[in-house]
Amino acid sequence: MGSGNIHKRNTSDIKKRSIKERGIGVTLRFIIGRAGTGKTHTCLTEIVERASRDSSTNLIYLVPEQATFQTEKAILQRHPAGGIMNIQVLSFQRLAWRVLQETGGGLFPPLNELGKILILRRLVEIHKEKFKVFGRVIERPGFLETLVKGISEFKLYAVSPQLLETCLQHEEINRHPSLPDKLADLALIYQEFEAYIKNQYLDTDDYLDLLANNIHRASFLRDAEVWVDGFHGFTPQEYHVLSELLLKCARVNVTVCLAEEHTRKLLPETHTFYPPWETYQRLRQLAFEVNCPLEKDDVLDFSGEHRFYRRRDLAFLENSFLEEGKVSHPPGAGLKLVAAANRRAEIEGVAREIIRLCREEGYRYQDVAVLLRDFSQYELLLPTIFSDYEIPYFLDMKRPVHHHPLLELLRAALEVVEKGWNYDPVFRYLKTDLVPLSRQDVDLLENYCLAHGIRGSRWTDGRPWQYRRSLTLGEERELTQGEETELRRLNKARERAAAALLALQNRCKKSHTAQDYCFSLFRLLEDLGVTWKLEFWSKKAEEAGRLEEARLHAQVWDKVMELLDQTAEVLGKEPLNITEFSQVFNSGLEGIQLGLIPPGLDQVLVGSLERSRNPDLKGVFVLGVNEGVLPARSLEEGLFFDDERKALAETGISLAPGSEKRLYGEQFLIYLALTRASDFLWVSYPMADGDGKALAPSPLIARLRELFTPGEEKLALAVCTVEPTGDNDEDYVVHSYRTLGYLAAVLRQAVEGKAINPLWWHVYNWYIDQKEWQKPVSRVVQGLYHVNQEARISREQVRKIYGTTLLASISRLERFKACPFAHFLAYGLKLKARPEFKLGAPDLGQFFHKALERFYQYLQDHELEWAELTMEQAREITEEIVNELVPQLQNELLLSTARYRYLTGKLKRTVLRAVWVLREHARRGTFRPLGVEIAFGKEGALPGLQLTLADGSTIILQGRIDRVDGAAGDKGYYLRIIDFKSGSSSLSLLEIYYGLKLQLLTYLDVVLTHAPHLIEGEAYPGGVLYFTIKDPFITEKGPLSPAEIEKKILRELKMKGYLLKDPEVAKMMDAEISGPSDLIPVSLSKEQEFYKGTANALTLEEFTKLRQHVEKILKEIGQEIMEGDVGIQPYQYKGKRPCTYCLYARVCRFDLSVPGNSYRVLKEREAGEIWYEIGVKEVAEDE
């Protein structure tokens, strides 16, 4: 520990009182011995024996806070009367409370950690402009907690604000660049904090100072005997208290984990026993300073009955672990070293071993402890696995409760009041289950708000919600009866959801002080009936045997009430706005931690190796013994770096040990961990983390193996696997629930033809014979033969779902070809993504389609020609159309935020760019629109495409064609299909061949089949093309002229697809073509012929055969749908998979490692091979 600033400060006062107030026969006695020699046993025995023969003398047993419960239990078990009467088991804090209760020293309200956070939050905000360093970090998570710990450290080590200011003048401080500014900031905030609480509150960190100053007035301590046990070091404040006890009490006994020979030596800081040796020396010095006689040390050794007398290997470990040399000992049953596959396997191995010890070795759960150096890696897994094995356990640690619904309710409610009724805080509030609203109603509200972008005043204006999501732009229709019923339910749910929160908002508007806000929050909890709900949860948990959870709800409520009281008390009538109060109160919520007491007596203790105290253990499990974990890498923490702590020490300011000294102390912690067990010690480490990354063992593992390896007989390193491997299979048969999982893994090996241990057939028969396990084991067997695949649905089910005649769009059939199961979910079960009030790709596509349709209609109505448009006309028409459409898209989505309003400008530019490119097509070609958004099928301008399937049933294809163009040539009339795409799209022969892209060819088939509805006479295919709608950004190294930029933009927006292999048709699309066209995907030579290798131009025969092939594919798809194919069979083509963006991944759970799951791999094929297969026997050389 530090040099003891408090101790130094009070030395003169102590010496004065040592003469006047010392009791008769006051002495200090040390009980010395290494781990396991019986120091605690000696204390307990002496206390119980003394209490049995003398009930008038107060006996004080001073132990660490976390050990008080176990110590009281130990005394009760030993005392013949089963009571503790004149025995008091106290920690330093509890002793302070007891003394101040008698002497009246604590007149002011106590200020706990939460109260300090609240005050510091306020002070930091007030003085932030004065800070030199802290101004940059005050908003960082955890800063206030670090500041609180820093001030606590100052108080523990008697460092005042004035002392900090004084040391600023020291030359050593100025050698460190940031230290002077940091100390100045600390001195400021520390001084302001002390001034704030003076004559108002009692800082709990001042308790021990107050205790030391009042011990001489406490009558119950006069002539009392004190035993101090379980400490390996003390802070200066605690030394001060001990010095006062030496003046007041009849006798003080202190246990020190130290061998007798160490008391006569000068140990270096690096020595394992330096921490207790330093404590021993300081206490001796303290006794000298107060003139307290020292009794002869009571030295305990291993000569009699001690912790390890039944286990020679554990006794050898204690004696030899720290010794250098080659001495070794035969392996025994008391020590087990384990390497686990991962942390899960490690914990499961521990659980199985604990059960074995309890069943076969007569252990009770309370005889066992699990010790961890790094609790963070195990805090989620360990409780889950122990619960699976039905092992009662207690986590000996303070736990943050940020996740608790009550804290989330308060955080969210304050955010709503402060920042408005936005989606996130409103539904965080509603989903706490503390609002009197069913989960179904919350889901209904959430879906509705997401779909319609409801936020802000729409929650509170009192007007009923009647929004409905349009599937197309500008759609208007009457509500159905079902929709009206749902809206009524929705509005009632909205009223219940908003009532208490709206009342809070109204109260907060009238609030001006912390007291006002705290009262408003308390009223919110009252309005919601939170106390009743928490009591209900607590009762349910208790009935289910979850005692720790039951107590947690009650403790959280108490902590929140304490925070409200402390906030109202500490900040009182200080003026605050809602933002300032939220900052302060949220800081308080972040600081809430719970330290639960064990809910039962017989349970496994799970705790930190550094914190937990339980000397009476038969079995100890030390987990996570990896490199860098045990011994732990010492990290610099707190307000100061190590070099800064050393600089402060040079000025006379001693603080808590730095990282270097803590590293030295790790060896002592390891020693304590290895010597805690009297009968069985398990030491294990995981070989990999949760991601499969290798983890190295600690050097401790090698040291243990070295100690227990005499000759050729090695200490075995057992291996824990996630599943049984054939070795020690009986170890896995310990618990009916968990063993069933192991049985499943082993039986799968049997199904795969591998030999398994006959033991598992006996296990299987046992489950079959137990009535309550017959169904679970049956599911296990079924799972062995499970393949992730769906059987065909029956004809009757098909008819119920799809009807006798299949009405389908082309995109639907393409979906089937991509994956039959995805098609079934989308069109059979009609599963769809939850609609949200945001602009997605489908919305953009819909907007652009509608805009171009309106533009076409405008030209028709005003008898304007595309080719004759001026830029000014195009811009004016586009502006008018976009302004009309914007309010119609998703209930004015594009008007809802500044971002969307900015996006509206981009949409105008994009539409204008598409219009201008289409105008260029019209100027340079003779193709003109015959119609846009031409519907075919039911109620369409064109009849649907009707196909008869192999079984005689019918499929009618229906849809909407974006644009059909026509042009008359020398050889006939040609039709061209254009499909608008807001994203990049291309068309390949292979995709058409495999049925992945059928849309354009099917549309061509529809218009050619029903050409008389569009034109007079026969028509020929002119082309099928994708037109990309975007406003490209052109980047070039050098400057470009406007004409060059325009040319590059045209090339960027060149249409993709196929056109008729006829130079006349190409010229009809681009009269200026010479070489590569800027508009269409072909090139013509100077002789006006297609270049060799032009793949995007097809002959009339090729178009015909391709249409026939597409029709064949359509019929096949229709037949497979009507036959009930719902297989999970996604394709894979050139690295593309429909699963990549599939909405239904969580439904189908496609996994290549699961039997039955594999991709339909579409092989690459040459164009000539494809043409030959679909009936084109002679392919032109240039293809």
How would you describe this structure in keywords?
1183 residues; alpha/beta; Rossmann fold; seven-stranded parallel beta sheet; six-stranded parallel beta sheet; 41 helices; 30 strands; 12% strand; elongated; disordered N terminus; PDDEXK_AddAB-type; iron; double-stranded DNA binding; 4 iron, 4 sulfur cluster binding
Can you give me a brief rundown of this structure?
It comes from Thermanaerosceptrum fracticalcis. The chain has 1183 residues and is of the alpha/beta class. Among the domains are: 5-108 and 222-299, 3-Layer(aba) Sandwich (Rossmann fold), CATH 3.40.50; 110-200; 312-398 and 599-720, P-loop containing nucleotide triphosphate hydrolases (Rossmann fold), CATH 3.40.50; 405-592; 729-784, no CATH class; 795-832 and 1115-1173, no CATH class.
